[in-house]
Predict the structure.
Amino acid sequence: MTDILDFRIDSKIRPTDPRILLDSGPPRALYKVNPRLILGKEWWDARRKQAYAEFLNMCAACAKCYVKLEAHELYTVDKRKGRVYLKDVVPLCYECHSFIHQDLHRALLSNGTMTTNEVRRIIKHGRDILKKFKIPYFKKDPNSSKINFYDWRMVIDGKEYPPIFDSNGAK
């Protein structure tokens, strides 16, 4: 795609990509099984700060510059084998990060953490970016696999980590 914004000044600066907004993440079975929890706070802090620097403190999806960014993990999901691999860590603004995690909106609305207007604003932000770059809005369902819930694994440095919750959400 040629419309991707590319702010590379030297080989250390990475291009932004609005297609990140379509990230569906790992399947529900691997909720709370992720590198930042497995590898620890020190690893996570170093990796997210590295991502912020690589993108010049710009959101990797919408390319706007922000003082406060959130880090987001991108994964390669192998639905045939039930394996999930960390692909990248990228900085995102609050709106883009929230757009990716729309599955949380219902819970945040019900407990009063988010308002309906905030959810609408977040969805509009994401859809406007996708529309600007002529990217169809279609999120893949990470749970659309024939792999049994308990057979999924997060793979980090060759080691496999199983789900920590059962299919009903209990530990």
Remarks:
- The beta strands are 70-78, 83-92, 153-156, 159-161.
